[in-house]
Amino acid sequence: MNTRTRKVSTSDRNDILEISRHIWDGHDYLPLVIDEWLSDQNSYTYGIEADDHLVALANLRLIENGQTGWMEGLRVHPDYRGKGFAHILTKDLIKRARNLGVKRLRHTTSTENCASLRLAEKYGFVKILEKNVFGYPIPKDMLPSIGHLGVRKSNPREVYAMLQQNPKIIPHNILFFDWKAFDCTLEALETLGKTHEFYVATQKGKIDSLSYAYSGLAQRRPFTIYASDTRGFLLHLSHNIALASKHGLEWVAGTCDIDFEKVLNEVEWIPEEERWSTHMALLEKKLFKS
Fold this sequence. Notes:
Blueprint: E1 3-7, H1 13-20, H2 30-39, E2 43-50, E3 53-63, E4 68-76, H3 85-99, E5 104-110, H4 114-122, E6 126-137, E7 152-154, H5 156-165, E8 174-177, E9 180-183, H6 186-192, E10 196-203, E11 206-214, E12 223-227, H7 230-246, E13 251-257, H8 261-265, E14 276-286
Parallel strand pairs: 4-5, 12-13
Antiparallel strand pairs: 1-2, 2-3, 3-4, 5-14, 6-13, 6-14, 7-10, 8-9, 10-11, 11-12
Helix pairs in contact: 5-6
């Protein structure tokens, strides 16, 4: 079998769709973002060709002014797994990142994905922290048992200023959304604000909880919650469920600190048999010293 590593192009779309068909029961996000990757000057999408078809691919995206290389979308067609293609692409992207002067590489994966974790460990990635990722249908027969009157809409600049007074809300100063992560800077918040809405709640004049939700059209309107305590977490959970319901959505998907996992599992109005959750690990590899 002859193989070669090469840059992915738009002509590979059918092969990419074929690979994605086998990911997450056909619900892979790759078909939704591949065009963006291929047109983005900060993205480097490479794959492996075998038997005249693209059978594996991965993307390296430069973020945070080129200081961070975000690795994403590593996929191998089921018929070609076990041949070391994931290793080849990982080594290739690490080499490209070094040549580009990237200081660190990051990516996320489920803690249940043992193969991905082993691959990361082999190439020197270490776990920075974990988050809880969850999803479930919006209750139709019952309303959330806690109100959300204490939550108000905000904006990136205000959120950034408020976080300077209570930075402990954001562990490691890292923000998450949709399996992605970035350092909490004003620039990052303003970029996030182009596609997300921000909500805050305060106690004694200081921010004690924060959430942001995707404001575009999405089946689950994903949101992320940060809070100092259970009260703040439930306020924002209730608030985001109400907003999702208002938008006519049937499902919600969220991210929160693992400290609130037990609280989330005990919420009565979420049917236990319909809950879905996993832990997302943020992995990092230092390439050059800051």
